Amino acid sequence: MTTRRIRRTVRSATLVAVAAAAAFSVTACQSGDNDASGSHKAGTSAQSQAQHESASLTSKSASADRTQTLVDGSKAKISKVGDQHYRAEIVSDGAVIATLEADGRDAGMDGNGMFVTLTAGGQISSWMDAGQQGPGTFNLEGGWKAKVTEQGEGHYRAEIIGHDGVMGTLDADGHDAGLDANGVSIVLTTGGLISSHK
User: Fold this and answer.
1) Which of 192, 48, 188 minimizes the C-alpha distance to 106?
2) Percent of all residues in the chain with a pLDDT value above 70, rounded to a whole number
3) What's the pLDDT tens digit per position in 160-172?
4) Is position 2 within any domain?
5) What pTM did the predictor assign?
6) I need a labelling partner for 13 at 20 to 30 A (CA). Which of 24, 41, 113, 145 fits?
């Protein structure tokens, strides 16, 4: 098994419920070398506006390379922006409802029970799951385990454990954290919810 250390940076994204008038907010995160961070909190209108403006600016620099249908029926328009740099715009009813950006790092988010990850290689995964609520130690897909601990309000950490010990850390501090662990997608929320998919 390949040892992989994980680091996350944060990018916010707002999701709009497809079948409801109300909007909900999620955030996207990215992975790197040592740890991970991400969020499950509802964003403020200022954050939503900033995300919208950021998406508007960056979407001009890359055209969609391919489109993939996600588990909830929405579409992900995946674009290669540069080397190990991909962006996925999640579109429902013709509107962009979220953006994931993996710039040298994996990205992930929880959208009210639909979990999504995007790798720095441009691979996207989505699944529906109730998740497992931390703190605690949980079995994940692919033989991984996650030891989830509460660090503070809206701040959970998960050590991802393999046969050789701790292989990486997700740190959801104000934003959801996500990663791809040798083909297993994992998301941790700021509320301590963890989910995996193979």
Assistant:
1) 188
2) 68
3) 999 889 988 888 8
4) no
5) 0.66
6) 145
Structure tokens given for 65:
């390379």
In a domain, 1, yes or no: no
| Domain assignment present for 91 | yes
DSSP label at 3?
-
* Residue carrying structure tokens 């931390």: 134
Q: What is the domain range of residue 100? A: 8-197
Q: How far apart are CA 80 and CA 38, in angstroms?
A: 22
Provide the token pair at 43.
Answer: 């964003």
Tell me whether residue 185 is in a domain: yes
Total domains, the chain: 1
pLDDT tens profile 42-57: 332 333 333 333 333 3
Residues 6+ apart with CB under 8 A from 168: 4, 5, 6, 35, 36, 159, 160, 179, 181
Burial class (CB in 10 A: 0-12, 13-18, 19+), 25: buried
| Length of the chain as a residue count | 198
Which helix (H) or strand (E) segment holds residue 58: the answer is helix 45-58
> Cα 170 from chain centroid?
11
> Rounded to the nearest 10 degrees, how much is the dihedral formed by the CA atoms of 8, 133, 88, 169?
20
The CA distance from 75 to 77, in Å, is 6
